Amino acid sequence: xxxxxxxxxxxxxxxxxxxxxxxxxxxxxxxxxxxxxxxxxxxxxxxxxxxxxxxxxxxxxxxxxxxxxxxxxxxxxxxxxxxxxxxxxxxxxxxxxxxxxxxxxxxxxxxxxxxxxxxxxxxxxxxxxxxxxxxxxxxxxxxxxxxxxxxxxxxxxxxxxxxxxxxxxxxxxxxxxxxxxxxxxxxxxxxxxxxxxxxxxxxxxxxxxxxxxxxx
Length: 216
What we know:
By secondary structure, the protein is of the alpha/beta class. It has a single domain, classed as Rossmann fold (3-Layer(aba) Sandwich). Helices cover 37% and strands 21% of the residues. The protein has helices at residues 5-14, 32-44, 89-111, 135-145, 161-168, 198-208, 211-214; strands at residues 25-28, 47-50, 53-58, 61-70, 75-77, 123-127, 151-158, 173-178. The strands form two sheets. The protein has a five-stranded parallel sheet with strand order 2-1-6-7-8, sandwiched between helices. Helix 1 runs parallel beside helix 2 and helix 2 packs parallel to helix 6 (198-208).
């Protein structure tokens, strides 16, 4: 059990101490992942940026992710999506467009304070506050991989064990503190799992903004 995201992230960062990283960059999945990513980046002396992906919600079950869409528009569907009632091509197209609109809103908001970091030939740590279905992480990894990082490491405080195995096949390494059999939701492993608002993300990104941009 973690006290909060900061506590979990500090413990996570200790797993990287002494590890050789090439021009490290932490890419966080908003919103909660940015709190995690900021602590990891500070502890490692790394850059911080965001990678945007959004879950695709099941019809009439908005808490169930049938997949995710990345900021480049590519869709990833979970293996069980084909069995979800009401998941038609029309519905999926509408949900994709809805989530892409939210990604575009966040891009404008976040990129005003932090221009996109270069990924090519860097050690990239992709993080979130936890992994449940894994869909947003997998969509994010596909976006990052296309930009040819030196290595791609997934770092999360907690994950469902079955999804972790799939994610492990998509990156160079996985660092995860907890992967319990009795997994129901990420929030069950935090004493404080308060929602993270856009304003907090903007403030954290501003701390890591390149000097030339911050002084603009």
